[in-house]
Automatic annotation (TrEMBL):
Any single GO BP term: tricarboxylic acid cycle
Active site: H280, D337
Name of the featured protein: Citrate synthase
Species of provenance: Allocatelliglobosispora scoriae
MF annotations from Gene Ontology: citrate synthase activity
Coiled coil start-end: none
Pathway where it operates: Carbohydrate metabolism; tricarboxylic acid cycle; isocitrate from oxaloacetate: step 1/2
Recorded superkingdom: Bacteria
Pfam families hit by this protein: Citrate_synt
UniProt keyword annotations, A-Z: Acyltransferase, Transferase, Tricarboxylic acid cycle
Alphabetized InterPro entries for the sequence: Citrate_synth-like_lrg_a-sub, Citrate_synth-like_sm_a-sub, Citrate_synthase, Citrate_synthase_AS, Citrate_synthase_bac-typ, Citrate_synthase_sf, Citrate_synthase_typ-I
């Protein structure tokens, strides 16, 4: 009911673009997406090649520093991260204060925010050495924080990192291992999780990354900015969608597997009923990451001998949706979140951890984008304009006269 054109005239020349449907907030050399063609590249390298041949730490290096590392550079980067995986003992005690049933996402964002109280020597956003120290600390400590958030939720003791292990293996052991008990990381699980992290590592100006930039534009430090990004990722329309997909599949299964009935409810636009894991602001074609995840889900469930009727429901949903004009005309295809939850579930992660796994993967992208912004010669604080729709000027009315 708002007359936008009248408001625009009143405000003068501003761009009115709710949801930033058509507004670029930055120029960036990191990630390229062609949403119509379904193309995604990090620093020019196609996502399918990176998913198949690279590794998460190599991709992190690529995103953050702009080039693929030499073997020596990658070894040095990996070693440096390895040396910073421990949490300060005082930070470890933070976890005691959260309720047992706390969702691990706000636990993660709180602990990341708290890092800036422990590393006050590395908060200057314009000091290259300090930014580098913060970069390494984040990459090293976030997996430890994530697994502690999980251990807290199941009431098990925390495990210290084992730095003889690789990045993902270490995270898996801290998450699923139990003190004084041998825990052998399944190499298939570690490899697939590493690949999923690669697929999530950056996605240009999505909601959480744009948030990291917005917070950083006030010259807030990297820990504070990334903590804000974790909170933005938590929402069900963004990273929270991977948890929401599994909830949707469970609901359909509990309903006797009535896929057509569910799709009807989506098409009728029943309050709160969406086909979660479908649709994307930028992709108007199959999300290239979803294609890779779908194949991985089929392989992993087969190789782990964990057939899951929810995979059949998901595939049927996709088939029904892609043959239906409602979805076709709106260019709604599966996005990265549609099949990831099934893999995480097969690996033993509870639904509440799914979005945390997304955060672990997205971390290098947040860092790379924040660093890119901070080195811009003319950094401007992010500060949108508005169209005012409130009351005109009116005199104050004392309380006894209202
Ligand atoms: N199910 C049913 N209808 C949908 C869906 C969906 N998942 N997504 C979009 N639509 C419909 C909308 O109702 C709208 O229809 P209309 O034109 O009749 O009003 C049309 O498609 C356009 O959708 P918008 O919501 O305007 O598209 P927008 O770009 O704003 O939203 C978003 C993109 C948030 C991803 C949306 O598709 C969505 O909510 N999807 C489900 C949640 C999800 O999977 N999020 C993860 C995104 S990827 C990521 O963060 C990793």
């Amino acid at each position: 009911g708002v007359d936008v054109s009248a408001l625009l005239k009143e405000t003068g020349y501003v761009t009115y673009d709710p949801g930033f449907m058509n507004t670029a907030n930055t120029a960036s050399a990191i990630t390229y997406i062609d949403g119509d063609a379904g193309i995604l590249r990090y620093r020019g390298y196609p996502i399918d090649q990176l998913a198949e041949k690279s590794s998460f730490l190599e991709v992190s290096y690529l995103l953050i520093y702009g080039e693929l590392p030499t073997q020596t550079e990658l070894a040095a980067f990996t070693d440096e991260i390895r040396m910073h995986t421990l949490l300060h003992e005082d930070l470890r005690r933070f976890f005691d204060g959260f309720p047992r049933d706390a969702h691990p996402m706000p636990v993660l964002s709180s602990a990341v925010s708290a890092l800036s109280t422990f590393y006050q020597d590395s908060l200057d956003p314009f000091d290259a050495d300090q930014v580098q120290a913060t970069t390494i600390r984040l990459l090293a400590k976030v997996p430890t924080i994530a697994s502690y958030a999980y251990k807290k939720s199941i009431g098990q003791p925390f495990l210290y990192p084992d730095n003889s292990l690789g990045y993902v293996e270490n995270f898996l052991r801290m998450t699923f291992g139990v003190p004084a008990t041998q825990y052998d990381v399944d190499p298939v699980v570690a490899k697939v999780l590493d690949m999923l992290f690669v697929l999530h590592a950056d996605h240009e100006q999505n909601c959480s990354t744009a948030t990291v930039r917005m917070v950083g534009s006030s010259q807030a430090n990297l820990f504070a900015s990334v903590s804000a990004g974790v909170n933005a990722l938590f929402g069900p329309l963004h990273g929270g969608a991977n948890q929401a997909v599994l909830e949707m599949l469970n609901e359909i299964q509990a309903d006797g597997g009535d896929v057509d009935g569910f799709v009807r409810r989506v098409k009728n636009k029943e309050q709160g009923v969406k086909l979660m894991g479908f649709g994307h602001r930028v992709y108007k074609n199959y999300d290239p990451r979803a294609a890779i995840v779908k194949k991985a889900a089929q392989d992993v469930l087969e190789r782990m001998h964990k057939p899951d009727p929810l995979l059949d429901i998901a595939m049927k949903l996709e088939q029904v949706a892609l043959a239906d004009d409602f979805f076709v005309s709106r260019k709604l295809y599966p996005n990265v979140d549609f099949y990831t939850g099934l893999i995480y579930k097969a690996m033993g992660f509870p639904q509440k951890m799914f979005t945390v796994l997304f955060a672990l993967g997205r971390l290098p992208g947040w860092i790379a984008q924040w660093r890119e912004m901070m080195t811009e010669p003319n950094l401007k604080i992010g500060r949108p304009r508005q169209l005012y729709t409130g009351a005109p000027e009116r005199p104050y009315v004392p309380a006894d006269q209202r």
